[in-house]
Amino acid sequence: MFNEQVRSVLGKLALMDDEDPRMEEYLQRLLDLLLQDEEKTIQFLEQGSRKELLLISELFPEVAYTLGSEDFLKYIYQLDKKHPELDLLRHIETDPKYLN
Q: Domain of life, per the record (predicted)?
Protein backbone atom coordinates (compact mmCIF):
# COMPACT_ATOMS: atom_id res chain seq x y z
CA MET A 1 0.00 0.00 0.00
CA PHE A 2 2.77 2.46 0.96
CA ASN A 3 4.76 1.81 -2.23
CA GLU A 4 1.66 2.23 -4.38
CA GLN A 5 0.78 5.54 -2.72
CA VAL A 6 4.32 6.88 -3.18
CA ARG A 7 4.45 5.72 -6.80
CA SER A 8 1.07 7.32 -7.50
CA VAL A 9 2.27 10.70 -6.28
CA LEU A 10 5.60 10.32 -8.07
CA GLY A 11 3.79 9.48 -11.30
CA LYS A 12 1.74 12.66 -11.06
CA LEU A 13 4.84 14.73 -10.28
CA ALA A 14 6.72 13.23 -13.21
CA LEU A 15 4.00 14.35 -15.60
CA MET A 16 3.76 17.91 -14.26
CA ASP A 17 5.39 20.93 -15.74
CA ASP A 18 7.71 22.71 -13.29
CA GLU A 19 5.38 25.72 -13.37
CA ASP A 20 2.27 23.70 -12.50
CA PRO A 21 0.61 25.33 -9.46
CA ARG A 22 -0.23 21.87 -8.08
CA MET A 23 3.46 20.94 -7.83
CA GLU A 24 3.78 22.13 -4.21
CA GLU A 25 0.65 20.21 -3.21
CA TYR A 26 2.00 16.96 -4.63
CA LEU A 27 5.46 17.50 -3.16
CA GLN A 28 3.80 17.98 0.24
CA ARG A 29 1.79 14.77 -0.26
CA LEU A 30 5.00 12.93 -1.09
CA LEU A 31 6.77 14.40 1.93
CA ASP A 32 3.88 13.41 4.21
CA LEU A 33 4.08 9.84 2.92
CA LEU A 34 7.86 9.64 3.36
CA LEU A 35 7.60 10.91 6.92
CA GLN A 36 4.97 8.34 7.95
CA ASP A 37 7.40 5.48 8.43
CA GLU A 38 11.17 5.71 8.17
CA GLU A 39 11.61 1.97 7.63
CA LYS A 40 9.07 1.83 4.79
CA THR A 41 10.65 4.88 3.21
CA ILE A 42 14.09 3.27 3.28
CA GLN A 43 12.66 0.03 1.87
CA PHE A 44 11.02 2.01 -0.94
CA LEU A 45 14.24 3.86 -1.72
CA GLU A 46 16.18 0.60 -1.74
CA GLN A 47 14.06 -0.72 -4.58
CA GLY A 48 13.23 2.60 -6.26
CA SER A 49 14.02 3.30 -9.88
CA ARG A 50 16.56 5.92 -10.89
CA LYS A 51 13.77 8.33 -11.84
CA GLU A 52 11.98 7.76 -8.51
CA LEU A 53 15.18 8.36 -6.56
CA LEU A 54 15.88 11.57 -8.46
CA LEU A 55 12.37 12.89 -7.84
CA ILE A 56 12.53 12.06 -4.14
CA SER A 57 16.09 13.29 -3.61
CA GLU A 58 15.06 16.94 -3.46
CA LEU A 59 13.06 16.06 -0.34
CA PHE A 60 15.95 14.28 1.40
CA PRO A 61 16.97 17.31 3.50
CA GLU A 62 13.48 17.89 4.82
CA VAL A 63 12.93 14.18 5.49
CA ALA A 64 16.27 13.88 7.30
CA TYR A 65 15.65 17.04 9.33
CA THR A 66 12.06 16.21 10.24
CA LEU A 67 12.81 12.60 11.15
CA GLY A 68 15.92 13.70 13.02
CA SER A 69 17.31 10.29 12.16
CA GLU A 70 20.99 9.63 11.89
CA ASP A 71 20.11 6.21 10.43
CA PHE A 72 18.16 7.81 7.58
CA LEU A 73 21.00 10.20 6.83
CA LYS A 74 23.52 7.35 6.86
CA TYR A 75 21.27 5.42 4.50
CA ILE A 76 21.17 8.34 2.06
CA TYR A 77 24.97 8.38 2.01
CA GLN A 78 24.97 4.62 1.31
CA LEU A 79 22.39 5.09 -1.42
CA ASP A 80 24.54 7.80 -3.00
CA LYS A 81 27.50 5.41 -3.06
CA LYS A 82 25.29 2.78 -4.69
CA HIS A 83 24.13 5.30 -7.35
CA PRO A 84 26.94 7.90 -7.65
CA GLU A 85 25.73 8.91 -11.11
CA LEU A 86 22.54 10.32 -9.57
CA ASP A 87 24.32 12.76 -7.22
CA LEU A 88 21.71 12.15 -4.54
CA LEU A 89 23.60 14.23 -1.98
CA ARG A 90 23.36 17.46 -3.95
CA HIS A 91 20.46 18.57 -1.74
CA ILE A 92 21.88 17.29 1.56
CA GLU A 93 23.82 19.60 3.77
CA THR A 94 26.56 17.69 5.57
CA ASP A 95 26.23 19.76 8.71
CA PRO A 96 24.98 17.60 11.63
CA LYS A 97 22.50 20.34 12.55
CA TYR A 98 20.11 18.44 10.27
CA LEU A 99 19.66 15.97 13.07
CA ASN A 100 17.62 16.73 16.18
A: Bacteria
